[in-house]
Write a structure and sequence with these properties.
The chain is α/β, with parallel strands linked by helices. It has two domains: 199 residues, Glycogen Phosphorylase B (Rossmann fold, 3-Layer(aba) Sandwich); 153 residues, Glycogen Phosphorylase B (Rossmann fold). Helices cover 41% and strands 17% of the residues. Helix 3 runs parallel beside helix 4. The longest helix has 17 residues. The radius of gyration is 21 Å and the shape is globular. The mean pLDDT is 93.
Length: 376
């Protein structure tokens, strides 16, 4: 197969099918430049008609009805059928699927399409729910489901992409995924025109950015902030994001906690990072978190648990501050930030240097080129 290739992605991110210009949308803008066409199969958007973005990215929402969630339960069949249809017009060179527990319909469909068309299959593991720490039985079950699926089906993948090495490589090897199948390709793409230091006066505030979900451990952060705020009447906490725990957070937050929701643009997010003394990320488990890298690029101090990519990035006291999962530990580090402004500035400068490898164009070029080398 000569020239640029056609490739299929099966994603669990349906936001793009609803017109959201999210992180996945921005990733495809650069990634697609390395291919003739990129075809993305998503869940239903209630319309089910294909459309094109970025000139050569074809979005294929499921056309199955959402009544009774038939679109979900029949998604594997839809992926297989649509892959065949795409291949008739655009001979596909490979399938990429995002491995999402607990039922994996997209990945099952990708496996079937790969077998039908006799083309390679890249399975992408972005996150292990409940790892290293689970919050409740649901996360523990999803972690079990992920382990069972990868043990049973790793033979059906040509390669398994991992996005952080220190955490995911030993975990997947322990599940029996052969070393030769594991591809370490980070999934963090930072636009340094957006995420950069700005000449903005720092406010006496900490920031949290992310979903309001159990794995984020945000109530430990709220408890920690409440204790700090009792001694520092000028300090506040701003929270960027939303999620299923929003109402509970609203009930339990103190008066100096401001919930901003999702901000309109990434530039708005970067502005809040620049205004803040530090970003606090107390997560129990993560695939990223991307927001810590964004804040570091802005020369904003990061307080993070050793999860996801941060397990590889953290040099405690040198480029960021490591925290454990307890409210007491988070409180102590927040107090340290308020009491040591000179040391904080030094750590912030080193933090920005630590994330240069995640520059948008370079990181996405590496992603595409890694796959192209493996596709015959």
């Amino acid at each position: 197969m000569s020239g640029k290739k056609h490739i299929l992605m099966v994603t669990g991110d349906s936001g793009i099918a609803w017109g959201k210009q999210n992180i996945f949308y921005e990733m495809l803008r650069e990634f697609s430049k390395y291919f003739a066409t990129v075809h993305v199969i998503t869940g239903s958007n209630n319309v089910g008609l294909p459309f094109i973005i970025h000139e050569n990215v074809h979005i294929h929402p499921s056309n199955r009805t959402r009544i009774g969630r038939w679109d979900f339960w029949s998604h594997s069949d839809f992926v297989r059928k649509r892959a065949r249809e795409i291949n008739e017009r655009f001979p596909l060179a490979a399938v990429i699927s995002h491995v999402i527990p607990p039922f994996f319909p997209g990945t099952h469909g990708g496996m079937r399409a790969s077998a039908d068309l006799k083309i390679p299959h890249f399975a992408e593991v972005m996150h292990i729910p409940g790892y290293p720490k689970a919050h409740g039985s649901l996360e523990a079950w999803e972690r079990w489901a992920m382990g069972r699926f990868l043990k049973r089906h790793n033979k059906d993948f040509d390669w398994v992409r991992i996005i952080n090495e220190a955490e995911l490589r030993p975990y997947l090897k322990g599940l029996g995924v052969p070393k030769k199948k594991l591809l370490y390709v980070p999934a963090f793409y930072l636009d340094f025109d957006t995420f950069k230091p700005r000449k903005i006066a720092k406010k006496q505030q900490f920031v949290y950015a992310g979903r309001f979900e159990t794995n984020k451990n945000i109530f430990a952060l709220l408890d920690a902030f409440r204790a700090v705020a009792a001694d520092y009447p000028e300090v506040k906490l701003v929270m960027i994001g939303d999620g299923s725990l929003r109402e509970k957070v609203e009930r339990e937050r103190s008066e100096r906690v401001e919930i901003l929701g999702w901000l309109p643009t990434l530039k708005d997010v970067a502005k809040v990072y620049n205004e803040s003394l530090a970003l606090v990320m107390p997560s129990l488990s993560e695939g990223g978190p991307r927001v810590t890298l964004e804040a570091m690029a802005c020369e904003t101090l990061v307080l993070s648990t050793p999860v996801g990519i941060m397990k590889s990035v953290i040099k405690d006291g040198k480029n960021c501050l490591q925290i454990e999962w307890s409210a007491k530990e988070i409180e102590e580090k927040m107090r340290w930030v308020l009491e040591h402004p000179r040391e904080v500035k030094k750590i912030c400068r080193a933090g920005r240097e630590s994330v240069q490898m995640f520059e948008y164009h370079e990181a996405l070029g590496n992603y595409a080129k890694t796959y192209l080398k493996l596709i015959k």
